[in-house]
């Protein structure tokens, strides 16, 4: 994610609502402590740092998942990042059972470009994004296809967690080369052909015989 937000790592911010104290530790977890003298006062984890919430190609929040068990599921929390004068946990709610919503204010997200996803990616993934933009512009893929490619890019960058099915699919894809368009296939073929020519020249220079297989 955005490197400038890493300075929040190792810090914790608390917020007291009624008899509950909430604590948010960025890139770590969210906890809740019931501040009463009841013998069974609740104190537990509402979520562990899991992945980013990305909307309109912008980081809008953090998902803290797989917290303490709650009936048939586990507790989870979405932390909304909003511009503020200081770093503070400003608001907590529970929109649905065991799913919490926190609002975290910080001056680190006030700049209009501070939460853009594109600059945080590697050059290779930025190129992949550029290619997807071009394919969309040339109407070679649909808007849905474009969004699917972006999701794959975010997963590859580690910003989103891939599902188990997706991981298995990724493993099987590694076995065979797959191209979304004929143009992409032709481009890759041309690049590989050029690479083979260069390798042949190198082998000749070092007096190494090149044995072509029958499927060349």
TrEMBL record:
PROSITE patterns tied to this protein: DMAP1_BIND, MRH
Subcellular location as annotated: Golgi apparatus; Secreted
Gene Ontology CC terms, in alphabetical order: extracellular region; Golgi apparatus
Pfam families in UniProt: PRKCSH
MRH domain ranges (all copies): 10-112
Keyword line: Disulfide bond, Glycoprotein, Golgi apparatus, Secreted, Signal, Transferase
UniProt entry tagged with the keyword Glycoprotein: yes
Any one GO molecular-function label of the UniProt entry: transferase activity
Residue ranges constituting the DMAP1-binding domain according to the UniProt record: 117-216
Keyword hit for Secreted: yes
Purpose: Non-catalytic subunit of the N-acetylglucosamine-1-phosphotransferase complex, an enzyme that catalyzes the formation of mannose 6-phosphate (M6P) markers on high mannose type oligosaccharides in the Golgi apparatus. Binds and presents the high mannose glycans of the acceptor to the catalytic alpha and beta subunits (GNPTAB). Enhances the rate of N-acetylglucosamine-1-phosphate transfer to the oligosaccharides of acid hydrolase acceptors.
Quaternary structure annotation from Swiss-Prot or TrEMBL: Homodimer; disulfide-linked. Hexamer of two alpha (GNPTAB), two beta (GNPTAB) and two gamma (GNPTG) subunits; disulfide-linked. The alpha and/or the beta subunits of the enzyme constitute the catalytic subunits.
Name of this chain's protein: N-acetylglucosamine-1-phosphotransferase subunit gamma
Organism (species): Onychorhynchus coronatus (Royal flycatcher)
């Amino acid at each position: 994610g955005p490197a400038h937000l890493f300075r929040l790592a190792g810090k914790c911010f608390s917020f007291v609502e009624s008899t509950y104290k909430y604590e948010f530790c960025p890139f770590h977890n969210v906890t809740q402590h019931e501040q009463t003298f009841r013998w069974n006062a609740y104190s537990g984890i509402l979520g562990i740092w899991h992945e980013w919430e990305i909307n309109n190609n912008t980081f809008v929040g953090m998902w803290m998942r797989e917290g303490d068990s709650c009936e048939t599921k586990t507790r989870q929390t979405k932390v909304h990042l909003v511009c503020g004068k200081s770093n503070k946990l400003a608001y907590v709610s529970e929109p649905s059972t065991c799913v919490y919503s926190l609002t975290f204010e910080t001056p680190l997200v006030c700049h209009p470009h501070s939460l853009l996803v594109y600059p945080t990616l590697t050059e290779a993934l930025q190129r992949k994004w550029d290619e997807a933009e071009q394919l969309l512009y040339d109407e070679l893929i649909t808007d849905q296809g474009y969004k699917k490619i972006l999701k794959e890019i975010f997963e590859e960058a580690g910003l989103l967690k891939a599902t188990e099915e997706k991981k298995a699919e990724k493993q099987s894809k590694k076995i065979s080369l797959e191209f979304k368009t004929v143009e992409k296939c032709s481009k890759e073929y041309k690049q590989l052909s050029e690479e083979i020519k260069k390798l042949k020249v190198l082998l000749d220079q070092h007096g190494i015989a090149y044995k072509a297989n029958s499927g060349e």
